[in-house]
Write a structure and sequence with these properties.
Layout lengths: L7 H13 L8 E2 L12 H10 L7 E2 L8 H44 L6 H38 L3 H5 L3 H6 L2 E6 L6 H9 L17 E7 L2 E7 L13 H15 L2 E7 H7 L5 H12 L3 E7 L10 H18 L8 E3 L8 H15 L5 H13 L10 E10 L4 E8 L5 H15 L7 E5 L6 E2 L1
Parallel strand pairs: 1-2, 3-5, 3-6, 6-7, 7-8, 10-11
Antiparallel strand pairs: 4-5, 9-10, 11-12
Helix pairs in contact: 3-4
Organism: Physcomitrium patens
Protein name: GTPase Der
GO molecular function, one term: GTP binding
């Protein structure tokens, strides 16, 4: 498929595949998608929603010319290839076992023929009985080996829509998580990296600007492979001139944009002294991360400097001010995780990784279409307009992609849903399905226009 959308011939090919090749897994690709990812009109989401109607799951938008989207395509195809390889190996193992057992039967018969025994009839019956029992063992062993794996393979190939929509924990852990640590200079980003790795991997110190280049480290946490990136201090571009600082800032932005989850590090001591939780730079970074559709975890570092009874009041003010500021700054994303840590003392490491893993899991979540449509009928009945304001009526809803979760509401009638109704649907999705702390996107598909709410 390309930008022209689903054509009649595409639908015919889809019917042919479902009828004549039901056991073949199909992935729909939207080619020539360059420039459509940043289209504010939502044309890409509308095209993906239209392609979803073919019945082959969530399509992948790519650009064969520029390579855009090929990483997402690889992540989608990799579990299929691994499953097919496992099934092929199981079939080969079953064939080898069958050959070995056949050879064992022949050897046993040759050995028995050379033995002097009773009458020929007794020997013949004995040989036939032993041969029958050995063949039964061989067949049963083959069934246990091959049919178990084959059934599992066929079950995976013939997954219904509900099972296909849910990403299992094992499949989720196959894809490495991209985690970035970002924040202003000298807030303890490198110290936090060392704390998460539980080793002195990078250089730290009281001087700001020690990290010039982004540092990428691979490690595992609870069987989840993670690529952790420690970025240079985040500074406004207008304050930078040409030179190493400008290159460091550009590299930091590039790594944050590639990340799946971003940890924004704040300085607790500075918050207590200035009586404000976030500067303009940090607020702009948090908003940019959410707009890019990434998971966000806020880490308030240097809480060890506010330890003790003499700092109890300041500590309480910091722990109250940060959540309030995040709620005002990001009203469209409720429940952003906030962790208070001391990276220098190694306190709070487990809490940080727990919230990071949970944000990544929600960021990758997929909801079945059937479940969504049962839900949308109930939730719109709670809305004052009932989903039929201005001549528009909600027909159905589907999730067209994950990472972040993106939904398309199909609307019929002469009108369209207004922004308040789309925000109502987005809020209800977060509340009813527990999609808190991550950005979700809701588009509407109607005859004339498309709108989106994050």
């Amino acid at each position: 498929m390309n930008r022209s959308g689903v054509q009649p011939l595409d639908a015919e090919v889809g019917k042919w595949l479902r009828k004549l090749a039901p056991n073949v897994r199909v992935k729909v690709l939207l080619n020539k998608a360059e420039g459509m990812h940043d289209d504010a009109s939502g044309s890409l989401m509308a095209a993906m929603g239209e392609a979803y109607s073919l019945g082959f799951g969530t399509p992948v938008a790519i650009s064969a010319e520029s390579g855009l989207g090929l990483a997402d395509l690889y992540e989608d195809l990799r579990p299929w290839v691994e499953t097919a390889q496992e099934a092929l190996l199981a079939k080969r193992a079953a064939a080898n076992l069958r050959e070995e057992e056949s050879a064992a039967v022949e050897t046993e018969l040759e050995f028995r023929v050379d033995e002097p025994a009773g009458s020929g009839l007794e020997n013949e019956l004995s040989y036939k009985g032993e041969l029958s029992s050995l063949e039964d063992i061989s067949i049963n062993s083959e069934v246990r080996l091959s049919l178990g794996d084959t059934d599992e393979f066929e079950t995976k190939l013939n997954l219904n829509e509900e099972n296909e929509a849910l990403m299992s924990e094992a499949e989720l852990k196959r894809v490495p998580m991209q985690l970035a640590i970002a924040g202003r200079p000298n807030v303890g980003k490198s110290t936090l990296l060392n704390s998460l790795l539980m080793e002195e991997r990078v250089l730290t110190g009281p001087e700001p600007g020690l990290t010039r280049d982004s540092i990428r480290v691979e490690f595992e946490y609870e069987n989840q492979k993670i690529f952790l990136v420690d970025t240079a201090g985040w500074m406004q571009r207008k304050k930078l001139k040409e030179g190493p600082a400008a290159l460091s800032a550009m590299n930091a932005r590039r790594n944050v944009q590639r990340a799946h989850v971003v940890t924004l590090v704040l300085d607790a001591q500075e918050i207590a002294e200035t009586k404000r939780s976030m500067r303009h730079t940090e607020a702009a970074l948090a908003q940019w991360v959410v707009q890019e559709g990434r998971g966000l975890v806020v880490v308030v570092n240097k809480m060890d400097l506010l330890a003790g009874s003499e700092h109890a009041r300041l500590r309480s003010l910091v722990m109250k001010a940060v959540p309030e500021e995040i709620t005002k700054l990001l009203p469209q994303v409720t429940g952003v995780p906030i962790v208070f840590v001391s990276a220098l003392e190694g306190k709070g490491r487990a809490a940080v990784m727990r919230h990071v893993n949970e944000s990544y899991r929600l960021w990758c979540v997929r909801l079945p279409t059937a479940k969504l449509n049962r839900w949308i009928r109930k939730v719109m009945s709670r809305h004052p307009k009932g989903g039929e304001g201005h001549g528009a009526k909600v027909r159905y809803i589907t999730q067209v992609k994950a990472r972040p979760p993106t939904f398309v509401v199909f609307v019929s009638g002469q009108g369209k849903l207004d922004d308040t109704e789309l925000r109502f649907i987005a809020s209800a999705l977060r509340e009813d399905f527990g999609l808190v702390g991550i950005p979700i996107r809701v588009f509407q598909r109607c005859s004339k226009d498309q709108r989106t709410v994050e």
